[in-house]
Amino acid sequence: MAELVRLSHHGDVAVITIDNPPVNALSPGVPEGIESAMQQAVADPQVRAVVIIGAGSTFIAGADIREFGKIVSGERPKLTLLPFLLAIEDSPKPVIMAIHGQALGGGLEVAMAGHYRVLAPKAQVGQPEVKLGIIPGAAGTQRLPRLAGVPKALEMCTDGNPIKAQEAVALGIADKIIDGDLLEGAVSFAREVAGKPAPKTRERNEKLQAVSPALFQAARAQARQKSRGLHAPLAAIDAIEASTKLDFAAGCEEEARLFNECLFSTEAQALIHLFFGERAVAKIPGLPKDVKPLDIRRAAIIGAGTMGGGIAMNYANAGIPVIVKEVKQEALDRGVGIIRNNYAKTVAKGRLTQEAMDQRMALIAPQLTYDGFDHADIITEAAFENMALKKQIFAELDKIAKPGAILATNTSTLDIDEIAAVTSRPAMVVGTHFFSPANVMKLLEVVRGKASSPEVIATAMALGKKLGKIAVLAGNCHGFIGNRMLEPYFREAQFLVEEGASVEQVNQAMYDFGMAMGPLAVDDLAGLDIGWLIRKARAAHIKPGLRVPLVADKLCEQGRFGQKTGRAWSKYDQNRTQSPDPETAALIESTAHAAGIERRQISNEEIVDRCVYGLINEGARILEDGIAQRAVDIDITYIYGYGFPAWRGGPMFYADTVGLPKVLARIEEFEKKHGSDLWAPAPLLKQLAADGKKFKDFDKSKEAGP
Ligand code: ZOZ
Question: Has residue 527 got a pLDDT over 80?
């Protein structure tokens, strides 16, 4: 207890300080430490009130999330915080919670068990548990509606987003904002309330009266729509509804039942995997510890198209001045117009002030020349996906860029080393693959060339964070992590329609699996012409006789590129509303017939298995080749870049939850039916399945020796 929780005295006020870096999580020892300090403070006749505060940058960020995995695996008995919180609330001396940084999850639950809460002006409070697939488990769903009211408690517990100090006070979650020194203010506040009757949150029932059942129905409908596939938000609503129907103790029992149900779900395991995964991808094994990222103060971009414009917005949003170069004035004007329009939409929605928009626009310098490129710390090429063009641009950049500038390419598939080879500084070349729309999508795939220096890698990763992205490091191969895996995924989607599934069935089956969009709908959105260009460039690499999808090229030959032309796999009206395209259906049928492909009824299960297991099998090869550092890097890539459902934990985690022997057996079935060229199981998958291991256990750096 001595280390994690300290007791000190400020005259007649006892101060309990939680000191469990980095975020004061309620790890084993912390609740016990607070409990013991409370007992001493209560027993001490000199003490009239108690202040509980966090050391470091925050109050309490919640339960120690690492403990949940131990509970689920049976390694640790289930803890309950409830008796400890009741003891705080039953203290005969008032307990004041002094909150700075965050009071999240179990942290807010501890805070609400106090008699008063005072906040630093920048503090935030929230119940983010749904983001981990669980619900508050220490009476949060029973105390929050009593303080904030049922509608706000429903919102906070279902979307999981924190609220600011000012709102917390306005709602009644907290009593006062302390400007200046928080501890001093909290101690003064404690003296003001000492000796007066202290309010217990659990006895404050007035905000639970006359709540309409329709409120819960509406919350459920909204949660089903906004959090498709997730169970935890619905469980949180059930628990809050229980607070309006049962007394506090029975409500807590119901909450505990629902908490437990969630904690042992695959959804919780997947989302907790994601929580740690998001942080793990920033750690790069093998990168020397003393490597410092370079300072990025000025940026330049080649290309003001969809990608270049979106990337420029990222820089401007982060306050970094950026030059955007185009070849023709018309293209430049169009690009800048799109940027302005995007910002204007955000202003219209009230999510950005006009002043902030003007500041950001002022950071973007559109031009037709290379003026100022010699001052840029990073230059990002976002031209067409064409190797000859990219080489020409890099050769020019090599002459213009200052020594020490990073030369980045936004290529989504091409060989970074081949591009780097045309420069005199391959160590400064790296791939920074943004996802469209680049101003919205969270993923940044950083691609390491064979010569990319550790500083350049560290800078690209740090830059990703600065731009608000989740950066994942990939090795150099055709398509890197994301698009390499997409190949079998799109291939199978197209084979399935050739074999008899409809476009709509394939899209719907994958949407129902949880993907943000069906694969053929994604193809229509991205534009079939992109894949067409890549296929033409790679035709020589395709093994003769290998089955390849036949319809996409035919659609492209007819100028049907997807949403932008109104037709391809589906039809789109002026508002881009999708409907089936009978001509495409007929084209698929006649193409399949001419190629001698047998048409049959196809189940949704087969669609999901062939598309998802195609991803997984390629993912296993990517892992084995060292293109991805860990399975979790692939999972994060797919969730943040490709719309894979977060609650399934990413493709590799999903395979682990299905069981690798089962995944392997199904892939072997496909191999028998469709041939080894397409479906030979990845050796790593076979190996892990035979050893009874999982993808998440695989660590290439360890396999490779010291
Ligand atoms: O870290 C940010 C954050 O949002 N943390 C998670 C907050 C959260 O989800 N809290 C709810 C936890 S669940 C809960 O509390 C259930 C509940 O109702 C309790 C009921 C108990 C019932 C008993 C039955 C068991 C935060 C905003 C706090 C800070 O963000 P930063 O960007 O400054 O820092 P990060 O995110 O890089 O974090 C720094 C290091 O701290 C680790 N960490 C953060 N929160 C943690 C945690 N580790 C364990 N538990 C937590 N709650 C994080 O992984 C990172 O570690 P490293 O090693 O990567 O540095």
Answer: yes
